[in-house]
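User: Show me an example of a complex going from sequences to C-alpha coordinates.

Assistant: Sure. Here are the input components:
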Amino acid sequence: MEWRVTEELGKTAVVSFSGNINVNDEPAVIELVRNVLLPKGFIFVIFDLNGVEYVDSAGMGSFLAARSVVNKSSGELALAAPSHKIEKILSLAGFNKIFKIFGSVEEAKRKVAV
Amino acid sequence: MVRIHFSFPSRTSFLPGIEALYRQFMSDFAAESGLCPDEIFLAVVEGVVNAVKHGNGEDPEKNVDVELFLTEEALHITIKDLGKGFCPETLADPTHPDNITLPGGRGIFLMKRLMDSVEYHFSPGQTVLEMKIACRGGCHGMEGDRGAW
Protein backbone atom coordinates (compact mmCIF):
# COMPACT_ATOMS: atom_id res chain seq x y z
CA MET A 1 0.00 0.00 0.00
CA GLU A 2 1.12 3.53 -0.77
CA TRP A 3 -0.64 6.74 0.09
CA ARG A 4 -0.20 10.46 -0.43
CA VAL A 5 -2.18 13.52 0.56
CA THR A 6 -3.42 14.81 -2.78
CA GLU A 7 -5.56 17.73 -1.65
CA GLU A 8 -5.84 19.97 1.39
CA LEU A 9 -9.02 22.04 1.62
CA GLY A 10 -9.53 23.87 4.92
CA LYS A 11 -10.07 21.16 7.51
CA THR A 12 -10.39 18.51 4.81
CA ALA A 13 -7.68 16.26 3.42
CA VAL A 14 -7.94 13.88 0.49
CA VAL A 15 -5.66 10.87 0.76
CA SER A 16 -5.13 8.76 -2.35
CA PHE A 17 -4.21 5.12 -1.83
CA SER A 18 -2.74 2.66 -4.29
CA GLY A 19 -1.93 -1.04 -4.19
CA ASN A 20 -3.48 -3.38 -1.65
CA ILE A 21 -4.78 -2.45 1.79
CA ASN A 22 -4.38 -5.57 3.86
CA VAL A 23 -3.31 -6.83 7.27
CA ASN A 24 0.21 -5.50 6.77
CA ASP A 25 -1.06 -1.96 6.23
CA GLU A 26 -3.46 -1.73 9.16
CA PRO A 27 -1.14 0.23 11.50
CA ALA A 28 -0.06 2.63 8.74
CA VAL A 29 -3.64 3.67 7.95
CA ILE A 30 -4.37 4.46 11.60
CA GLU A 31 -1.04 6.27 12.09
CA LEU A 32 -1.71 8.30 8.96
CA VAL A 33 -4.85 9.75 10.49
CA ARG A 34 -3.62 10.01 14.07
CA ASN A 35 -0.07 11.24 13.49
CA VAL A 36 -0.16 12.99 10.13
CA LEU A 37 -3.62 14.42 9.46
CA LEU A 38 -5.05 15.30 12.86
CA PRO A 39 -1.96 17.23 14.07
CA LYS A 40 -2.38 19.45 10.99
CA GLY A 41 -6.04 20.08 11.80
CA PHE A 42 -7.51 17.83 9.13
CA ILE A 43 -10.54 16.34 10.83
CA PHE A 44 -12.53 15.70 7.65
CA VAL A 45 -10.80 12.98 5.68
CA ILE A 46 -11.60 11.50 2.30
CA PHE A 47 -9.93 8.21 1.41
CA ASP A 48 -9.61 8.07 -2.37
CA LEU A 49 -9.66 4.34 -3.19
CA ASN A 50 -9.43 4.71 -6.96
CA GLY A 51 -5.98 3.13 -7.15
CA VAL A 52 -6.64 0.29 -4.71
CA GLU A 53 -6.51 -3.30 -5.96
CA TYR A 54 -8.12 -5.02 -2.99
CA VAL A 55 -9.05 -4.39 0.63
CA ASP A 56 -9.12 -7.35 2.99
CA SER A 57 -11.00 -7.60 6.28
CA ALA A 58 -8.06 -6.16 8.22
CA GLY A 59 -7.92 -3.24 5.80
CA MET A 60 -11.60 -2.66 6.43
CA GLY A 61 -10.87 -2.79 10.14
CA SER A 62 -8.29 -0.05 9.66
CA PHE A 63 -10.94 2.14 8.03
CA LEU A 64 -13.12 1.67 11.10
CA ALA A 65 -10.26 2.52 13.45
CA ALA A 66 -9.38 5.61 11.42
CA ARG A 67 -13.03 6.63 11.42
CA SER A 68 -13.13 6.28 15.20
CA VAL A 69 -10.06 8.54 15.53
CA VAL A 70 -11.52 11.38 13.46
CA ASN A 71 -14.96 11.02 15.03
CA LYS A 72 -13.40 11.66 18.44
CA SER A 73 -12.22 15.02 17.04
CA SER A 74 -15.74 15.76 15.76
CA GLY A 75 -14.61 14.96 12.24
CA GLU A 76 -15.64 12.49 9.61
CA LEU A 77 -14.07 9.90 7.34
CA ALA A 78 -15.56 9.24 3.93
CA LEU A 79 -14.60 6.75 1.23
CA ALA A 80 -14.49 7.74 -2.42
CA ALA A 81 -14.03 6.28 -5.89
CA PRO A 82 -13.85 2.58 -5.03
CA SER A 83 -13.71 0.21 -8.00
CA HIS A 84 -16.78 -1.90 -8.63
CA LYS A 85 -15.24 -4.93 -6.94
CA ILE A 86 -14.17 -3.01 -3.83
CA GLU A 87 -17.54 -1.31 -3.58
CA LYS A 88 -19.15 -4.76 -3.62
CA ILE A 89 -16.91 -5.99 -0.82
CA LEU A 90 -17.57 -2.87 1.26
CA SER A 91 -21.31 -3.33 0.77
CA LEU A 92 -21.07 -7.01 1.60
CA ALA A 93 -19.48 -6.09 4.91
CA GLY A 94 -22.19 -3.52 5.55
CA PHE A 95 -19.85 -0.56 5.27
CA ASN A 96 -22.33 1.28 3.07
CA LYS A 97 -24.48 1.60 6.21
CA ILE A 98 -21.84 3.23 8.38
CA PHE A 99 -19.59 5.08 5.93
CA LYS A 100 -20.39 7.71 3.39
CA ILE A 101 -19.16 6.14 0.16
CA PHE A 102 -19.03 8.40 -2.90
CA GLY A 103 -18.51 7.49 -6.51
CA SER A 104 -15.88 10.17 -7.03
CA VAL A 105 -13.55 12.36 -5.02
CA GLU A 106 -15.23 15.45 -6.44
CA GLU A 107 -18.60 14.30 -5.13
CA ALA A 108 -17.07 13.52 -1.74
CA LYS A 109 -15.51 16.98 -1.56
CA ARG A 110 -18.84 18.62 -2.31
CA LYS A 111 -20.60 16.66 0.43
CA VAL A 112 -17.90 16.42 3.09
CA ALA A 113 -15.34 19.18 2.71
CA VAL A 114 -15.24 21.92 5.35
CA MET B 1 -6.15 -31.49 -13.10
CA VAL B 2 -3.36 -29.33 -11.83
CA ARG B 3 -2.12 -28.78 -8.33
CA ILE B 4 0.24 -26.35 -6.62
CA HIS B 5 1.38 -26.54 -3.04
CA PHE B 6 3.46 -24.09 -1.08
CA SER B 7 4.52 -23.80 2.52
CA PHE B 8 5.76 -20.71 4.29
CA PRO B 9 6.63 -19.51 7.81
CA SER B 10 3.86 -17.79 9.72
CA ARG B 11 4.44 -14.23 8.68
CA THR B 12 1.94 -12.01 6.85
CA SER B 13 4.92 -10.44 5.08
CA PHE B 14 4.74 -13.44 2.73
CA LEU B 15 1.39 -12.23 1.33
CA PRO B 16 2.96 -10.54 -1.74
CA GLY B 17 4.77 -13.78 -2.59
CA ILE B 18 1.59 -15.79 -2.12
CA GLU B 19 -0.25 -13.39 -4.39
CA ALA B 20 2.43 -13.77 -7.07
CA LEU B 21 2.20 -17.59 -6.94
CA TYR B 22 -1.59 -17.49 -6.95
CA ARG B 23 -1.78 -15.07 -9.89
CA GLN B 24 0.69 -17.16 -11.89
CA PHE B 25 -1.31 -20.33 -11.19
CA MET B 26 -4.58 -18.71 -12.22
CA SER B 27 -3.04 -17.15 -15.32
CA ASP B 28 -1.38 -20.37 -16.47
CA PHE B 29 -4.13 -22.85 -15.67
CA ALA B 30 -7.43 -21.15 -14.90
CA ALA B 31 -7.72 -18.45 -17.56
CA GLU B 32 -10.56 -20.31 -19.31
CA SER B 33 -12.19 -21.66 -16.16
CA GLY B 34 -14.77 -18.94 -15.66
CA LEU B 35 -13.40 -18.38 -12.17
CA CYS B 36 -13.04 -14.90 -10.70
CA PRO B 37 -9.44 -14.54 -9.60
CA ASP B 38 -9.83 -11.38 -7.54
CA GLU B 39 -12.63 -12.54 -5.29
CA ILE B 40 -11.05 -15.97 -4.85
CA PHE B 41 -7.77 -14.33 -3.91
CA LEU B 42 -9.51 -12.28 -1.23
CA ALA B 43 -10.82 -15.55 0.25
CA VAL B 44 -7.28 -16.97 0.11
CA VAL B 45 -5.91 -13.90 1.90
CA GLU B 46 -8.50 -14.19 4.64
CA GLY B 47 -7.78 -17.89 5.12
CA VAL B 48 -4.01 -17.39 5.12
CA VAL B 49 -4.11 -14.47 7.54
CA ASN B 50 -6.31 -16.43 9.93
CA ALA B 51 -3.90 -19.38 9.75
CA VAL B 52 -0.85 -17.18 10.33
CA LYS B 53 -2.28 -15.03 13.12
CA HIS B 54 -4.88 -17.11 14.92
CA GLY B 55 -3.78 -20.63 14.02
CA ASN B 56 -0.01 -20.43 14.32
CA GLY B 57 0.14 -17.29 16.44
CA GLU B 58 2.67 -15.77 14.02
CA ASP B 59 5.26 -18.28 15.18
CA PRO B 60 7.77 -18.45 12.29
CA GLU B 61 8.78 -21.95 13.41
CA LYS B 62 5.31 -23.10 12.37
CA ASN B 63 4.49 -23.21 8.67
CA VAL B 64 1.23 -22.59 6.89
CA ASP B 65 0.52 -24.90 3.95
CA VAL B 66 -1.56 -23.79 0.99
CA GLU B 67 -2.73 -26.01 -1.85
CA LEU B 68 -4.65 -25.02 -4.97
CA PHE B 69 -6.17 -27.97 -6.84
CA LEU B 70 -7.95 -27.22 -10.09
CA THR B 71 -10.16 -29.73 -11.88
CA GLU B 72 -12.51 -29.20 -14.79
CA GLU B 73 -15.33 -28.81 -12.30
CA ALA B 74 -13.93 -26.71 -9.46
CA LEU B 75 -11.04 -25.03 -7.74
CA HIS B 76 -10.27 -26.54 -4.34
CA ILE B 77 -8.21 -24.53 -1.85
CA THR B 78 -6.77 -26.07 1.28
CA ILE B 79 -5.01 -24.05 4.00
CA LYS B 80 -3.43 -25.84 6.96
CA ASP B 81 -2.04 -24.46 10.18
CA LEU B 82 -0.87 -26.02 13.42
CA GLY B 83 -3.39 -24.32 15.67
CA LYS B 84 -5.79 -25.89 18.12
CA GLY B 85 -8.84 -24.70 16.23
CA PHE B 86 -11.91 -22.79 17.24
CA CYS B 87 -15.67 -23.12 17.21
CA PRO B 88 -17.01 -21.64 13.95
CA GLU B 89 -20.57 -21.68 15.27
CA THR B 90 -19.70 -19.04 17.86
CA LEU B 91 -18.65 -16.46 15.27
CA ALA B 92 -20.93 -13.44 15.31
CA ASP B 93 -22.46 -11.87 12.23
CA PRO B 94 -20.20 -8.87 11.52
CA THR B 95 -23.00 -7.06 9.71
CA HIS B 96 -25.27 -7.11 12.77
CA PRO B 97 -25.74 -3.58 14.17
CA ASP B 98 -24.06 -4.65 17.43
CA ASN B 99 -20.96 -5.82 15.58
CA ILE B 100 -20.68 -3.72 12.47
CA THR B 101 -18.26 -1.18 13.95
CA LEU B 102 -16.02 -3.79 15.54
CA PRO B 103 -12.60 -3.81 13.86
CA GLY B 104 -12.40 -7.60 13.38
CA GLY B 105 -14.51 -10.67 12.73
CA ARG B 106 -15.07 -10.33 8.98
CA GLY B 107 -12.59 -12.84 7.55
CA ILE B 108 -14.63 -16.03 7.61
CA PHE B 109 -17.78 -14.07 6.81
CA LEU B 110 -16.15 -12.86 3.58
CA MET B 111 -14.79 -16.30 2.70
CA LYS B 112 -18.27 -17.80 2.99
CA ARG B 113 -19.74 -15.14 0.74
CA LEU B 114 -17.01 -15.41 -1.90
CA MET B 115 -16.73 -19.21 -2.17
CA ASP B 116 -19.29 -21.95 -2.80
CA SER B 117 -18.26 -23.89 0.29
CA VAL B 118 -16.05 -23.21 3.30
CA GLU B 119 -15.34 -25.96 5.82
CA TYR B 120 -13.00 -26.17 8.78
CA HIS B 121 -11.71 -29.53 10.02
CA PHE B 122 -9.99 -29.78 13.37
CA SER B 123 -7.70 -32.47 14.69
CA PRO B 124 -5.20 -32.35 17.56
CA GLY B 125 -2.52 -29.87 16.56
CA GLN B 126 -3.91 -29.07 13.15
CA THR B 127 -6.61 -26.97 11.56
CA VAL B 128 -7.54 -27.54 7.93
CA LEU B 129 -9.60 -25.04 5.95
CA GLU B 130 -11.15 -26.38 2.76
CA MET B 131 -12.78 -24.04 0.30
CA LYS B 132 -14.29 -24.83 -3.07
CA ILE B 133 -15.72 -22.88 -5.95
CA ALA B 134 -17.21 -24.26 -9.14
CA CYS B 135 -15.73 -23.39 -12.49
CA ARG B 136 -17.83 -21.55 -15.05
CA GLY B 137 -20.26 -20.42 -12.40
CA GLY B 138 -19.57 -16.75 -12.86
CA CYS B 139 -18.71 -14.42 -10.05
CA HIS B 140 -20.28 -13.67 -6.71
CA GLY B 141 -20.30 -9.98 -7.43
CA MET B 142 -16.83 -8.45 -7.57
CA GLU B 143 -16.22 -9.29 -11.20
CA GLY B 144 -19.62 -10.11 -12.57
CA ASP B 145 -22.94 -11.53 -11.62
CA ARG B 146 -23.06 -14.93 -9.97
CA GLY B 147 -26.17 -14.12 -8.02
CA ALA B 148 -26.98 -12.58 -4.70
CA TRP B 149 -24.19 -12.12 -2.18
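The lines above are the inputs; the final block is the predicted structure for all two components together. The CA atoms of residues 100 and 112 of chain A lie 9 Å apart.
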